[in-house]
Structures are given as structure tokens and as C-alpha cells.
Design goal:
The protein is α+β, with helices and mostly antiparallel strands. It has three helices and six strands, in the order ββββααββα.
């Protein structure tokens, strides 16, 4: 499924300033916060109640041709569309960088599961 967003507001009460975008098509993701773009990678923050399955679908959907994610985010961050390379985010403490090459919801979910299993293995020792 492709991702559709609409600019909602810019936060000015905290550092760093965030751009908040309303999200359509995803029940557990009413909005996302976009922090910045560095070296073509957009840093986003998932909402607290997001589920990894739906968030993985949203991130992968941002790269679909029907999605407006890239054009809208680049417009508000005031960068050229061709400078966009990917999306980075943290989910449950695990970091991800998704580019066009790995923009696949199944890969994102499996990577989350792999990191979760590694965390449990390193944390829960009998």
C-alpha cells in the first residue's frame, strides 16, 4: 500500500523542531513527526501506539510511485526531491535506515524481529 501524507504543523516548542504530517490509510499511524534530512536521509519518529507491521507497511509504502511522501517531505524541508535517499527511524529502540533498495515491509519486519531476538538473547540470561 502506498503512503499518503498531508502537512499538519511545525512544532516550535521543542528542539529539534519537527514537522508533523497527518497520515492516511493506516489506523495506528495518525501522524508522523519528521525531524530533519541529513545526507538525503529523512529522520522520522513513529507515533507511540504504532505497531511494527503497520509502520513497516507505511515506510515501504513511502517509496511506492503513488505515494506523495517524498515530494511532500522534501517540499517542507526545502530540499530538492532528487536529494532524497531514504528514511531512518527508531522503533522500540532499534534503528533502521530504509532506502529504495530495501523498501520492503517484509524485510523491515524481519529485521525488527532479528534485532528483537538479539536483544532478548543478550539481555535475558538465566
Amino acid at each position: 500500500m502506498y503512503s499518503i501524507i498531508v502537512f499538519e504543523r511545525q512544532t516550535i516548542y521543542s528542539e529539534p523542531h519537527m514537522f508533523v504530517f497527518s497520515v492516511f490509510n493506516y489506523d495506528s499511524i495518525p501522524s508522523i513527526d519528521v525531524e530533519c534530512i541529513k545526507e538525503g536521509i529523512v529522520k522520522i519518529h513513529p507515533p507511540v501506539n504504532a505497531h511494527i507491521n503497520e509502520f513497516a507497511d507505511f515506510v515501504a509504502g513511502a517509496f511506492e510511485p503513488e505515494s506523495n511522501f517524498i515530494s511532500v517531505v522534501c517540499k517542507y524541508l526545502k530540499v530538492p526531491i532528487d536529494s532524497f535517499k531514504g528514511i531512518s527511524f527508531d522503533f522500540n529502540g532499534f534503528h533502521f535506515t530504509v532506502t529504495k533498495e530495501n523498501a520492503n515491509a517484509i524485510w523491515i519486519k524481519k529485521e525488527w524481529e532479528r534485532q528483537w531476538k538479539q536483544y532478548k538473547k543478550n539481555t535475558y540470561k538465566p
